[in-house]
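Quick one, tokens below. Sequence please?
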């Protein structure tokens, strides 16, 4: 999250918002990161960023410096625009990822600047519904269902759910890697974890699906323990 210094407005008009999105798109292509959700409010920005090549600190610095330079030039001002350093929190499992995406998309609705979910134009919700933009939607929609239509229907239902009444929102207690290793071995039985690397893809994916269906272990833990990449585990 980036917030205006002293909570001041950082987007005065739509041109400012378009410019910020253009800057994110530019550095997304240049630096190779992913965007899973965003929302531009008047005095702050929410972004869900997945690092790939460059670290998050460098990505956020590029975006922040570029926007402040442009904003200061446009409004004939000088000095800081954002309050201190950006704030960030790690997302390590799919359920929490969906929780944060919903929180971001519900921001305009809860702030009473949008009457219904999806009406606010300066967030990634519409991109999940088919509009072009900067958001990498496939990864998240595939969590809901393999069919695009079914995934979007489930996505809308989840985004509109009330946090207090939705059990899926509650973040799971995260297992330690040692606890997760024990569960992995229970699922694999007599098969050593190292054997997964040399298996045929179909057989390997069968075991990875069993591990995901177990529900106790996060995708990232499965990837760490088995030695596969995050994307291989997700797509298995």
């Amino acid at each position: 999250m980036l917030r205006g210094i002293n909570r001041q407005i950082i987007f005065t008009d739509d041109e400012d918002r378009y410019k910020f999105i253009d800057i994110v798109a530019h550095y997304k292509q240049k630096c190779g990161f992913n965007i899973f959700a965003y929302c531009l409010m008047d005095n702050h920005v929410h972004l869900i960023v997945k690092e790939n090549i460059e670290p998050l600190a460098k990505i956020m610095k590029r975006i922040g410096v570029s926007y402040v330079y442009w904003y200061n030039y446009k409004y004939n001002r000088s000095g800081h625009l954002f309050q201190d350093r950006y704030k960030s929190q790690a997302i390590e499992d799919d359920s929490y990822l969906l929780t944060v995406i919903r929180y971001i998309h519900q921001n305009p609705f809860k702030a009473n600047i949008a009457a219904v979910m999806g009406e606010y134009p300066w967030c990634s919700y519409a991109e999940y519904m088919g509009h072009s933009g900067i958001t990498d939607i496939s990864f998240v929609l595939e969590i809901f269902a393999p069919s695009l239509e079914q995934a979007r229907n489930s996505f809308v239902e989840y985004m509109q759910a009330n946090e207090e009444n939705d059990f899926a929102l509650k973040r799971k207690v995260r297992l330690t890697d040692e606890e997760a290793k024990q569960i992995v071995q229970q699922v694999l039985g007599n098969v050593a974890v190292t054997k997964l690397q040399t298996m045929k893809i179909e057989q390997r994916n069968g075991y990875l699906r069993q591990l995901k269906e177990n529900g106790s272990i996060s995708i990232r833990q499965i990837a760490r323990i088995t030695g596969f990449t995050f994307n291989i585990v997700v797509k298995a």
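The chain has a mean pLDDT of 88. The beta strands are 2-3, 34-40, 44-50.
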